[in-house]
C-alpha cells in the first residue's frame, strides 16, 4: 500500500470522468487514484500532462520518459510506460532494456536518438545542458522539440518523485526493471 491511501471506487462523478478521459476505459492507475485524493494535486498533474500529440514522435517521447524514469530509479512509471507505449512506439526489447541500462552508450540508437538520450542523462545528472550538449541536441531537433524534451524530463522527474516518495506498489501489468536484460541505472 502506498504511503497515502488511494481513492477506492466508486469515485465521485467528476473524478470518474477524469479517470475515463485519461485511462480510456482501463482501470485508473494507483498513481492517479492517489493524486486524486487531493483535488488540487490531481488537477495540476493533469494540466501538466505531455502525453498528447506534441512535436516529438511517440518513439522520441517515450525514449525521454523511459530514460528519465529509469535514471530516477522509478520502476513504477518506467514500467507503466513500457507496458503501454513501448510496442506502439516501435521500441524493441533490447531498446527498452537500454533505456534502463546503457542509455546513450548503447549502439542501438540513431545519432538523433543518441543526442536525445545524452540530453536526458545530462539533465538528470546536473539539471542543465552545456553548450556542446545543447548544440548536439539542436542539430537534430527544432526549438519546439527541444522545449518539449526539457518539459518531458522535468515533468517525469516530478512523477518519479511522487511515485517513489509514495512508495507506490508496481502496477500488475507493468514492465519490471528485472525483466530487462540490463539493470536499471
Automatic annotation (TrEMBL):
Positions of the Carboxymuconolactone decarboxylase-like domain: 40-121
Q: Name one GO molecular function term.
A: peroxiredoxin activity
Write down the superkingdom of origin: Bacteria
State the organism named in the record. Phenylobacterium kunshanense
Where would one find the signal peptide in this protein?
A: none
Instruction: Spell out the InterPro entries in the cross-references.
Output: AhpD-like, CMD-like
This protein is called what? Carboxymuconolactone decarboxylase family protein
One Pfam family it belongs to: CMD
